[in-house]
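Here's what a typical entry looks like (Thiamine-phosphate synthase):
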Amino acid sequence: MNLHLVTDRSLTLGRPLLDIIRAAVAGGTSLVQLREKDCSTREFVELGQAVASLLQGYKIPLIINDRVDVALAIGAQGVHIGQSDMPYPQARAILGSQAIIGLSVETPEQALAANLFDVDYLGLSPVFATTTKMDLPPQLGLQGVQEIRAVSRHQLIAIGGINSDNAENVITAGAHGLAVVSAICAASDPKNAAMELCKKIAVAKAKAVAA
């Protein structure tokens, strides 16, 4: 799960979300997180069903941001939850052992506490300043990524202000993968944007192995 696409329909420049997702997957995106903060449950379910149908053909996992009920309703592969969402133990009990569950952490202390849970990955947020999500805590920066890597036993997926210019540095700092919103959703060529990010991830990991 090297590259996650986190969706935001407000950033697609008027293009259909399914077209953005299709292009991102063609470019190497390995997981899609459907994030919808302002739509009704019915609309969320209908959109989720459409995305799930699209991704099924690619065998790419779909996870739902926050909403365990929506994930269940559409048969998504899992959820991504934050510190104020449904607690991990309850989400795991509802979704089962095979579900992909990611948990957002904003500090090394939260990452250390998450060692008690069998989450599939931790979302480190925000690494850099971003305008795609409001009311965020202070940015972690590369040092924050390093500090969390030092205390965590989990796969670390970094998000927040990440693009092709800084992607390699974030992996080098200790992230195992990246999650992006505007870097793909708002890109003029989402497929090429995803390919470039995957290339940066691969280069950083190759350097780490060679070091």
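Residues 3-210 form a domain with the TIM Barrel fold (CATH 3.20.20.70).

More examples are in the samples folder.
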